[in-house]
Amino acid sequence: MFDEIMADLSGRMDKALEALQAEFASIRTGRANVSLLDGISVDYYGVPTPVTQVATVSVPEPRMLLIQPWDKSMLGSIEKALQMSDLGLVPNNDGAQIRLNIPQLTEERRKELVKLVHKRTEDARVAVRNIRRDGNDQMKKAEKQDGISEDQVKKGIEDIQTLTDDKMKDIDKLMEAKEKEVLEV
Fold it and tell me: Who has the most CB within 10 Å: 63, 69, 143, 159?
């Protein structure tokens, strides 16, 4: 019973960390990265489809993304989706492919991105704390229903706190790395 609860909590906390990593990947820094386009979808024959599933996206230069649609009729749709996105980048359509030049970030934009990183980090921390609370509740229910001793419940709650602390350290490491990447000139 106890091991099942810990395995479940650990898995859920890992998913919160993975979600944070995915969110960090979509935050634009001064470098080109294919994951910048992860949240952008185009209308592909009536179905919203991620850009990366209708085109080849490459990084020919450190500050440029090159998008080559497999179906040339998608160029306009991809260009429109990029303009409507919150990336703040201007697509260059040459009739066969789209170039996205990624400008150097301004100091003001870097500070905004750091604030966004901190907000996303806090969201992940809240998610992990909620998972901890659920685990503590499960332990207390197990004490009442399954007759687990008070000492075992206390040990279980301590183990849950240790797991939570470890995940918080991982979240902090991710935040520090992303913050450093954003502030890098």
Answer: 69
- Alpha-carbon distance of 67 to 55, in angstroms, equals 6
The whole-angstrom distance between residue 19's C-alpha and the CA centroid of its chain comes to 4
Instruction: Work out the mean pLDDT of the chain and round it to a whole number.
Output: 87
CA pair distance 49, 40, nearest whole angstrom: 8
Residue 35 in contact with residue 21, Cβ under 8 Å? no
Give the span between the Cα atoms of 23 and 38, in whole angstroms.
10
Residue 83 tokens read as 């303009």
Percent share of the chain, pLDDT over 70: 98
> What CA–CA distance (Å, rounded) separates 42 from 52?
10
As a whole number, mean pLDDT of residues 53-76 equals 88
Buried b (16+ CB within 10 A) or exposed e, 147-175: ebeeebbeebeebbeebbeebbebbeebb
Distances in whole angstroms, Cα of residue 155 to Cα of each of 3, 140, 150: 12, 12, 9
Burial call 126-138: b when 16+ CB within 10 Å, e when fewer: ebbeebbeebbeb
Rounded Cα distance, 3 and 37, in Å? 39
5-49 residue pLDDT tens = 889 999 999 999 999 998 887 776 777 778 778 878 898 888 888
Query: What's the confidence (pLDDT) of residue 149?
Result: 83
Please state, in angstroms and rounded to a whole number, the distance separating the CA atoms of residues 52 and 61: 18
